């Protein structure tokens, strides 16, 4: 009890410091908002901050209450934190500010038109059809609306790219400036050709807004909000599913880059959530399950079929299935069969969605002739055959990239450049350092070493054995019962066997005494006496056999009771990953990591480049829980509950990052 009180005192100070830090950052943001309102003579900027600052403090208070509670309901605290932070980023970074969000917007719009049974294209041009009221979002040529040619701007810009002080005023006055019109006009923005599943939340939001007659801002908000809800649902389910390392998934899901992508139209939200849930389900089977169920295998196949076609570089993660012990599958042969089913599901999905892309990678001349090569592939200067035939050049490019860009990728993964890689809007250097330290703390072991137990539904074999035993007991119940005494035949047989053993033992001892006396006197043993000894010995053997049968029956009853317990839902201890498992997970993660580099070397890097071009830190977010799993060690230990403190610290840091983004954006012209 004293240890728990001491730990509560230490963690209480941490939670209070977090709330105090938000207040200090809020005062800094208030100065910037007042300065911007006075400089640009726009009181809207300070009015918006009057909503942002109290909301941040209230969020910090609720987060402290949720993350300070012990128990296995961490997913609830995570779901609240991720949802509120997502709305925060949605508010401070409006418009189409995320990486490649214009293309994601166009793709979601096209799918939305298909949902509403409308023609998604303007024919014969073949361009995406959008409402006239939504066209000004693009502003690619400086024309704000096609219906009013004189309404132009000197510098073309996309709303929210970049985010600045005029962005907030434009969002507020959008419906006043542009008349509502559902007339379809052509949009020249290219869409994304990948699996449409990750665009369903955004498309549903667009469809609802169009059906309700909402304007452009309502359309954007619903599309982003439903994408955020999908992300929170997937990642919270991953936190709930995994039996170990809940803090890994929670912390990775609360990084600024993760939450800002979730609050956009990017398919990265669904991709990150899907990979997280796949990894969590693997961990559950490996360290918190007694056997695999059909629905779990189906879930693994479905998740792999979703993220594989979207980003093939994450396909090596299916190798994590080999972390699961063979007993969970019912044997090594069944384990191999399940892996083959998972692999075939992935391959089928990839071929169904990305056949043209794979052709362009490995047969560029044929793809160019057929018109299947994308703009990115036409920009690339290498082919797969060249890279395979020059391994030293490929190795040199990898080493140059690691030495020059590894820290940049790490910072981008955390969130130093949010929006469309905007170097001004994101986490500061000090905030990024604190995020990195938090991730490091998640690799420190808990010195208390408390055992974690989870509830499992029981095994099929135990349930089958219990049913068979119940049927046999019901069939033999009438024969075994003794009405006159009310005792069972097993109990009566045990008593008779014990009495027979005592009589046989006494008779044998008497006979042996007589034999010993006759032998000492030099007398000859008589035949009747020999027969008596033989009969006594036989009786003794029968009694011993009866006792052995009774012991076997008792063991059978104990085994039956244990089978009953295994047949019903019960708690089991969560396994501890060993060194071999951690090393294997690291190798799998490294395979995907270098797969990302290889893909960008093949599809984006020009021939005169010194290192691999086009790599962004957000590509490594889905791999973060795998690397945190592989870096676990008992060498460093602490009595602090980092699995709860680190996610809470990330919530506080995100609130400070959101305040910083708004404070810088309102001063940006």
Give a summary of the structure in a few sentences.
This protein has helices at residues 2-40, 44-67, 74-92, 101-115, 165-172, 174-177, 200-212, 216-241, 246-253, 256-262, 268-287, 294-310, 326-329, 332-362, 364-370, 375-379, 384-389, 391-414, 429-441, 460-480, 489-521, 527-567, 579-603, 624-630, 642-665, and strands at residues 121-122, 127-131, 184-187, 444-446, 453-456, 570-573, 633-638. The protein has 669 residues and is mainly α.
Structural class: mainly alpha
Span between termini: 58 Å
Shape: elongated
Question: Which residue ranges are poorly predicted, with pLDDT under 50 across at least 5 consecutive positions?
Answer: 482-490, 524-529
Quantity of strands, as a count: 7
Q: Describe the largest sheet.
A: 3 strands, antiparallel
Rg on CA atoms, Å = 35 Å
Seen as an oligomer or otherwise, the chain set is: single chain
For the biggest β-sheet, the strand order reads 1-2-3
Helix content: 55-70%
Structure description:
This protein is mainly α and 669 residues long. A three-stranded antiparallel beta sheet has the order 1-2-3. It is elongated and about 130 Å long. About 2% of the residues have low confidence.
What topology does this entry show?
Elements: H1 2-40, H2 44-67, H3 74-92, H4 101-115, E1 121-122, E2 127-131, H5 165-172, H6 174-177, E3 184-187, H7 200-212, H8 216-241, H9 246-253, H10 256-262, H11 268-287, H12 294-310, H13 326-329, H14 332-362, H15 364-370, H16 375-379, H17 384-389, H18 391-414, H19 429-441, E4 444-446, E5 453-456, H20 460-480, H21 489-521, H22 527-567, E6 570-573, H23 579-603, H24 624-630, E7 633-638, H25 642-665
Parallel strand pairs: 4-7
Antiparallel strand pairs: 1-2, 2-3, 5-6
Helix pairs in contact: 1-2, 1-25, 2-3, 2-25, 3-8, 3-9, 3-25, 4-7, 7-8, 8-9, 8-11, 9-25, 10-11, 11-12, 12-14, 14-15, 19-25, 20-22, 21-22, 23-24
